[in-house]
Amino acid sequence: MTCRICRNSENNTTYQAREMMFGLRTTFTYFQCAACKCLQIAEIPADIAPYNPQDYNGHVRPKNDYYSGVEGKFRKIRFLATLFT
Ligand SMILES: [Zn+2]
Hints:
With 85 residues, the protein is an alpha+beta fold. 18% of the residues lie in helices and 18% in strands.
């Protein structure tokens, strides 16, 4: 895999990670560039719509009840876990 930032393709480390925020659990391959340390997805999905719902904005709290109720609390915990892993 070639780094999109510095074009290095030597000694990059790959990781497998599942999508957890929306509960789809799709496994994606990421790699970290050995030269510039950039972490990036290996292959950008052809259809990213399932991972970017219309009511989702990663920078603004959703306006609906996304984080309310029992399910919402689990969503919030799952979201916060993504920030610290
Ligand atoms: Zn790089």
